[in-house]
Amino acid sequence: MNPLLDVALRSIAVYLFMIIGLRIFGKNQLSQLNAGDVILLLLISNAVQNAMVGSDTSLQGGLVAALVLFAANFGLKKLMFKNKKLK
Fold this sequence. Notes:
This protein is 75% helix and 0% strand. It is built from 3 helices and no strands. The chain is mostly helical. It has helices spanning 3-24, 35-53, 59-82. It starts with a helix and ends in a 5-residue tail after the last helix.
């Protein structure tokens, strides 16, 4: 498999896992997060970073991961805006 495609797929998997996890634990808005929640998110991001990029620690791999996360977030927001049930 193409290493950059692997980074993209891993990034999407981690993004969806985090969205589902936040929904399960009841945080819908950034304003609902307290200092402990923010610290937890930072620690989780550090913990799952290797799951997203694997052994690819290049600038290109990091940029692909970031681009995929931005695109996934944009797509999810569009879906939530159009589908009230999904929201």
